[in-house]
Amino acid sequence: MNKKELERFKKLLLKKREDLASEMQNITKESLSKSQREASGDLSGYSFHMADQASDNYEREFSLNLASDNQKLIYAIDEALGRIKDKSYGRCLECNKAISRKRLSAVPDATLCIDCQRKEEVKKKK
What is the pTM of this model? Predict the structure, then answer.
């Protein structure tokens, strides 16, 4: 892969990383900075209904799971940026064949070529 292509993928990865970090910050800010009463909009002195409390807990847990997934993606992006730095970006970690530019454009943090990715998915289904 030439220097110009590597720079293009680096910019793509950095933009994606920035977007995920911003989204993750918003999610955690909304989920963790408010008490359950504030989050539900109920500022009265009355207690929560159990169903409301369960719904609020579910929403909070769901948001934190999204933040966790984003953190995993950020880690994958950081790994891809490391591969750009050490000039191994764009090579499949399984078979060492080149990952197609089309695949990298769609999934810039891809570690496997499409064939190895398919094999991996088949293994996971079993």
Answer: 0.78
